[in-house]
């Protein structure tokens, strides 16, 4: 048996496997629903060296990009955190020291976040409450008067957001982001009504809300989204809704309902399979029955990412553009979809269903044929009348 001398360095050794790339300090953090971390890791490109840092929190080297080097929006990322440096301990003074080096000159605010832990009494919440109470005073003692004057309590008034994430009971992540870079600037937990929260977050994702007088139709469900749309002054119709006396209801099957106009909005929140809803929206897009869509897609238990990709393809082929699919803060086992219709299709106006168009063509053809027979009979009567007159 051949032995090797550990003191000799010139001996041949078995080749080692490829060296594992060492991950530098992560640049991006993503808040994700507890239990969905694996799906988010599947969305992030392997070269981003993504990993789970804590329950409901994933870190990566950067943001995923498409073939044209444009940033992609991960479906299962509830919030984005632009990390500044490695994690620090859960000490108020240490957190304030890190934040003080990041305070911008423009209006800014602080947001302390706790990732979803999947448990009702997550111990990280108490830590977040303590940091939220103490960090303000500790930070004020470390910054100048001009920087302090630029602070605002209102997130909507801030240009920059200092982000503090309680990753674990001993690890805090700190970041700095423009408010415009945030995925969801308003936390769903501020609203008690979950359905209204989901619709409000969807409007924020779409970047637009119904204007007064716009026409909104909700397909299926309980009509709760249509009811909430009335708060914007919209004219609404709930198709196939159950228990919605506050709004007009059309007692039709949502999958068989045929629009006679191009609605400004179509809303869908019903317990049907994601691809069924996608095909329904595909029909609405091809027939130009709505200009904007907000819909919830129920996630299947097996391979939800493949289902989401197929749903996106169906919508794109039908003419929907600006498609956003995201699991919003108030979403549970669903994702929310927003999109707008290609203006060329919208300008064309609504089209009747194929069966109705074929029936109309058949009726027109039969009408023209009946008129031709009537004209032929009239000419024949005139011919016979002239022939009889000549004989006499």
Catalogue the unreliable spans.
1-23, 186-191
Mean pLDDT: 85
What is the 3D form? elongated
Helix content: 25-40%
What is the count of distinct domains?
A: 2
Relevant CATH superfamily of the largest domain: Vaccinia Virus protein VP39
Largest sheet composition: 7 strands, mixed
Count of helix runs: 10
> What string gives the helices and strands in order?
EHEEEHEHHEEHEHEEEHEHEEHH
At the first level of CATH, the class of the largest domain is Alpha Beta
CATH architecture label name of the largest domain: 3-Layer(aba) Sandwich
Biggest β-sheet: strands ordered side by side in the sheet = 10-9-8-11-12-14-13
Query: Distance between termini?
Result: 133 Å
Rg on CA atoms, Å:
31 Å
Query: Structural class, from helix and strand content?
Result: alpha/beta
CATH topology of the largest domain: Rossmann fold
What's the β-strand tally? 14
Strand content: 15-25%
Nutshell version of this structure?
The protein has 392 residues and is an alpha/beta fold.
Structure characterization notes:
With 392 residues, the chain is α/β, with parallel strands linked by helices. It folds into 2 domains: 28-181, VC0802-like (2-Layer Sandwich); 190-348, Vaccinia Virus protein VP39 (Rossmann fold), CATH 3.40.50.150. The chain has 10 helices and 14 strands. The strands form 3 sheets. Strands 10-9-8-11-12-14-13 form a 7-stranded mixed beta sheet, sandwiched between helices. Residues 1-23 and 186-191 have low confidence and may be disordered.
């Amino acid at each position: 048996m051949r032995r090797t001398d550990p003191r000799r360095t010139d001996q041949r050794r078995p080749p080692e496997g490829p060296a594992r790339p060492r991950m530098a300090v992560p640049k991006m953090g993503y808040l994700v629903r507890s239990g969905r971390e694996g799906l988010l890791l599947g969305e992030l490109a392997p070269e981003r060296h993504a990993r789970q840092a804590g329950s409901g929190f994933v870190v990566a080297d950067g943001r995923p990009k498409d073939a044209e080097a444009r940033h992609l929006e991960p479906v299962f990322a509830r919030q984005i955190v632009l990390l500044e440096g490695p994690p620090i301990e859960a000490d108020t003074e240490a957190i304030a020291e890190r934040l003080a080096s990041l305070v911008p000159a423009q209006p800014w605010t602080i947001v302390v976040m706790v990732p979803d832990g999947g448990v009702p009494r997550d111990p990280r919440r108490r830590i977040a409450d303590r940091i939220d109470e103490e960090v303000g005073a500790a930070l004020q003692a470390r910054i100048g008067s001009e920087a302090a004057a630029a602070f605002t309590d209102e997130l909507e008034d801030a240009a920059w957001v200092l982000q503090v994430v309680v990753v674990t009971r001993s690890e805090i992540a700190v970041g700095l982001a423009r408010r415009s870079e945030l995925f969801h600037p308003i936390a769903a937990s501020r609203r008690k009504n979950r359905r209204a929260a989901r619709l409000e977050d969807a409007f924020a994702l779409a970047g637009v809300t119904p204007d007064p007088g716009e026409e909104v139709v909700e397909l299926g469900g309980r009509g709760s989204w249509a009811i909430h749309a009335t708060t914007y002054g919209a004219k609404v119709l709930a198709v196939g809704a159950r228990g919605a006396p506050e709004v007009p209801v059309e007692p039709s099957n949502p999958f068989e309902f045929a629009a006679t106009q191009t609605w400004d909005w179509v809303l869908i929140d019903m317990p049907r399979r994601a691809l069924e809803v996608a095909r329904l929206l595909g029909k609405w897009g091809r027939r130009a029955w709505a200009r904007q869509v907000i819909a919830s897609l129920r996630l299947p238990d097996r391979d939800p990412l493949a289902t989401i990709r197929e749903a996106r393809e169906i919508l794109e082929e039908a003419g929907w553009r600006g498609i956003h699919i995201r699991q919003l803060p108030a979403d549970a086992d669903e994702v929310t979809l927003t999109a707008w219709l290609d203006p060329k299709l919208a300008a064309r106006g609504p089209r009747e269903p194929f069966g109705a168009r074929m029936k109309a063509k058949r009726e027109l053809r039969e009408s023209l044929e009946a008129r031709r027979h009537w004209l032929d009979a009239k000419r024949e009567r005139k011919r016979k009348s002239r022939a009889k007159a000549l004989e006499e």
